[in-house]
Specification:
Layout lengths: L1 E4 L2 E3 L2 E3 L3 E4 L2 E3 L2 E4 L4 E4 L2 E3 L2 E4 L1 H11 L22 E2 L1
Parallel strand pairs: 1-4, 2-5, 3-6, 3-10, 4-7, 5-8, 6-9
Length: 89
């Protein structure tokens, strides 16, 4: 897993899978999760949105059929990266 340390990001797309976030702060970011491993320590998320993709999205859709998941709590799919967008991979 990749270690991301001491990052402060605002209004950025952050891919969570296969990363460990240590001493980070994310404000108004779009947190994208696809079902992989992740961890964080001493990390702050303020006004962030969560987007589920791939296996994570399919799991959420399955749980929604049994009213075990509130899909409206999550954002739409992440936009494709552009040359001008900030993104943490």
């Amino acid at each position: 897993m990749q270690t991301v340390e001491n990052k402060t990001q605002t209004e950025t797309v952050i891919h969570m899978d296969d990363k460990i976030f240590i001493n980070c702060a994310f404000t108004r970011c779009q947190m994208v999760y696809s079902g992989g491993d992740f961890a964080w320590a001493n990390t702050i998320f303020k006004d962030c949105r969560v987007t589920l993709e791939g296996p994570a999205k399919r799991t959420a859709e399955f749980l929604n059929h049994f009213n075990l998941f509130r899909a409206e709590a999550f954002g739409k799919a992440a936009p494709p990266p552009s040359s001008s967008s900030k993104e943490v991979h």
